[in-house]
Amino acid sequence: MSSAGTVRWGVLGPGRIAQALVRDFVHVDGAAVVAVASRSLDRAQAFADEHGLPQAYGSYAELLAADDVDVLYIATPHPQHLALAAVEAGKAVLVEKTFTATVAGAEEVVAAARRRSVFAMEAMWTRFQPAIVAARALVDDGAIGEVRQVQADLGVERPFDPADRMFDLAQGGGALLDVGVYVVSFAQYFLGTPDRVVAHGSLTSTGVDAEAGLLLGYADGRVATLLATLRHHTPGAARIQGTTGWIEVPPRFHHPGAVVLHRRGAEPEVISRPPTGGGYAHELVEVTEAVAAGRTESAVMPLDDTLAVQRVLGEALEQLGVVHHEDAEVLR
């Protein structure tokens, strides 16, 4: 950290999500974005100029080596295994979901982070949204009894284009790694890690999954039914169902402004908890405070949960016949 105690951030991959996320740093105390890197110096410099960053690099390796950066936000495609290189360089990391393209890749990054005692977290912003925090508190307080079922869907209409990253196997394309991670992580957060995964869906001509339905089964009979697709829009809603009521998370559930509590014998109760800024500030606060305090994991989005979600996605992809690989040849 800087002598003033400021946690200094760098951005690896100045894409659309990075643009939105960086704007939310105005809501984060004790943090500053000081650098950005791209494989195109012009692109990095344009990002730096737009957001007032003092340093732009034309290679990822230069930012990894910078000694004035504490945390790296990694927004490159799933297979670009930059998280491992960042952790090995001693940098804390916030890794855009999905954490990696493969289970083995995720396990490697987590093992390295724990071996080096470096903070690492998947950027699952949903868990930090105030409305989801409120839903979790209601569940923990027993407001809907024992949670027995979770339902969630998330779909976008993406016209097929083999040149688009979303349909490129080499870049970690497909519905499950892009939107499916949200529904799986949501179910894992409220039900825990399943004992069985059953997947059904369809593939594109490029070998990625275009759509998938998942049934997550638990030994005691609990279940999650999840939908993800690139073929069409879906409501993007979720429901947490318990023995004495349920919590409705209205669209889009992965960054809601409210939840609705339904209890047996009572009128529905709308609990409004809008996010701050664009909704990214909450996860940025989590990481900044953790790094400043010397913690190596988040209690809200721990690495074991990331691994559990990655394994569910991996099992589902295997059943669908989709094979992803990590790409270690990106450090230039």
| Largest β-sheet summary | 8 strands, mixed
CATH superfamily of the largest domain: Dihydrodipicolinate Reductase, domain 2
Whole-angstrom Rg: 20 Å
The strand line-up of the biggest sheet is 8-9-10-7-11-12-13-14
Mean pLDDT: 96
* Termini gap: 26 Å
Number of domains: 2
3D structure, described in words:
By secondary structure, the chain is of the alpha/beta class. The protein folds into two domains: 7-124, NAD(P)-binding Rossmann-like Domain (Rossmann fold); 130-272, Dihydrodipicolinate Reductase, domain 2 (2-Layer Sandwich). It is built from nine helices and 14 strands. The protein has helices spanning 16-23, 41-51, 60-65, 82-88, 103-116, 130-140, 175-191, 281-293, 303-320; strands at 7-12, 31-37, 55-57, 71-74, 92-95, 120-122, 147-155, 196-203, 209-217, 223-229, 238-242, 245-249, 258-263, 269-272.
